[in-house]
Design a protein that fits this description.
The protein is of the alpha/beta class. It has ten helices and 13 strands. The strands form three sheets. It has a six-stranded mixed beta sheet, sandwiched between helices. Strands 2-1-6-7 form a four-stranded parallel beta sheet, with helices on both faces. A three-stranded antiparallel beta sheet has the order 4-3-5, with helices on one face. It is globular, with a radius of gyration of 18 Å.
Amino acid sequence: MTAKIVTDSVADLPSQVVNELGITIVPLNVRFGTEVYRDGVDLTAEQFYDRLVHSQTPPVTSVPSPGSFAEVYDKLAEETDEILAIILSSKLSGTYEVALQSIGLMKRKCQVEVIDSQWATMAQGFIVMKAAKAAQAGASLDEVIEITQNNISRVDFLSTFDTLEYLKRGGRIGKAQAFLGSILRVNPLITLRDGVVEPAGRTRSRAKAIELMCDFVRSYFHIEEMAVEDAACPDEAEALVERLSSKFPRERIYRSKTTPAIGTHTGPGLLLVAILGDKG
């Protein structure tokens, strides 16, 4: 039987990719006061960012319930006896632990393995895609796990946004704490290292930050996959795609919206480039 791949909504995978590769998404939750929404299901990105700007109540995120993972595992167990869940960094969220603990709640018998991707956004998404493609091609669960682990070190992303205030508020700021002294005057660039938010540069202008993102892409001698993501700044994202098309075919650059679960911690204006590839 074909191994089935599960991930969470923070992977930011476009719906077409999810459908084509048979990936199952377990959404995180976004809460405005007493109102709870499933990330990317009950609240679109556009609705979320409009509410984020105008709401008096700041949103918070929460992990999926153990039951939601167990339900997904049980449903997939009707079709397969091998499941691999690839989850966002355990240092950013408790989702990994929930995905692991949920195995004990299953009603059906099935081998379920859970991997901490150490990433988020489409960097995580590319790892998931590689696993799903291998599974579709007939790889065994052990082979899919090996492919997944090998690709964790082959992905990266660089992002810029207008303020670190949302990361600070949500407690996800990590080593980027060093930026806070000049939070109002800096266009910060961040990435993840070992699953933790880390500063990757700072500039005095948005244009310079975007130029550094282009330099990041140019540092790769081989690019297998690329994605450009945005949070309520689609025009800038499209302009960035146009610039990067000289390095990588435009039609192969995935365009993705960062989910509300990410937007809660970054705010609007996030621009991100994710890559699967090899540097010199």
